[in-house]
């Protein structure tokens, strides 16, 4: 088979592998509601799915300040952490809003302190790609290689696609996280609300369950009846009061 025949097959395989990576990433993050958990899932999936990448990390900033890291290998988490100093490929990628590549850290001079630390940990090459999450959170996904020249043009393309897709998924996670927090606050308000709080107390006594579960019982009844939760609570309280009077 000649090279002209091999090249399209290799390119097709690259496209299929990238599609599989993005599909796996979507499946891994689609139901996650915790941002830190999503970052851990992201680096784990990327590390396992991208050939030639030995480790993967993520650097996050919230409102311009370091807001956490995730690493496929905890021993390398310090490479993604900006708190010791901003001199790193990740910060360069974030500041310049472009992909940063160092194929061989033995010849790298841009981040001297970081490069020394990385080489001591066995890292020989790195790609950092900026990730836009939302108006508050930005970051960079970092792909590390244990051999020089292991990161190719193909890895740069994969990193670019991965960063763009990860940004969309992480934005959705942040939105679900906010919605969950708002729902929790609403639940707390409902539990102290007069009639709903009273109804929750009745259900807790009847079923021997905690308050959140009792509130969920009210919600399920409201959904089934097609009426507001407060109306269900009022009916329950009235019914219980009448039964006590009798």
Automatic annotation (TrEMBL):
Ranges where the ANTAR domain occurs: 176-237
Keywords: Transcription, Transcription regulation
Record keyword Transferase present: no
Pfam families, sorted: ANTAR, GAF_2
Signal peptide: none
Protein name listed in UniProt: GAF and ANTAR domain-containing protein
Source organism per UniProt: Micromonospora rubida
Source lineage: Bacteria, Bacillati, Actinomycetota, Actinomycetes, Micromonosporales
């Amino acid at each position: 088979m000649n090279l002209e025949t091999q090249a399209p097959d290799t390119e097709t395989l690259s496209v299929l592998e990238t599609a599989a990576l993005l599909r796996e990433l979507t499946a891994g993050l689609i139901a996650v509601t915790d941002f830190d958990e999503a970052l851990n899932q992201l680096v784990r999936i990327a590390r396992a799915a991208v050939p030639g990448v030995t480790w993967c990390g993520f650097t996050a900033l919230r409102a311009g300040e370091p807001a956490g890291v995730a690493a496929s290998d905890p021993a390398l988490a310090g490479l993604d952490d900006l708190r010791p100093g901003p001199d790193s490929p990740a910060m360069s990628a974030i500041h310049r809003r472009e992909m940063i590549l160092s194929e061989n850290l033995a010849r790298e001079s841009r981040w001297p302190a970081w490069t020394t630390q990385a080489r001591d940990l066995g890292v020989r090459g790195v790609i950092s790609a900026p990730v836009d999450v939302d108006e508050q959170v930005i970051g960079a996904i970092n792909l590390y290689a244990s051999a020089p020249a292991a990161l190719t043009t193909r890895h740069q393309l994969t990193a670019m696609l991965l960063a763009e897709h990860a940004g969309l998924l992480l934005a959705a996670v942040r939105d679900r996280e906010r919605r969950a927090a708002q729902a929790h606050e609403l639940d707390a308000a409902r539990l102290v609300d007069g009639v709903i709080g009273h109804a929750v107390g009745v259900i807790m006594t009847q079923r021997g369950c905690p308050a959140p579960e009792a509130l969920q019982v009210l919600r399920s009844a409201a959904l089934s009846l097609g009426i507001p939760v407060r109306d269900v609570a009022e009916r329950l309280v009235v019914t219980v009061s009448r039964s006590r009077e009798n």
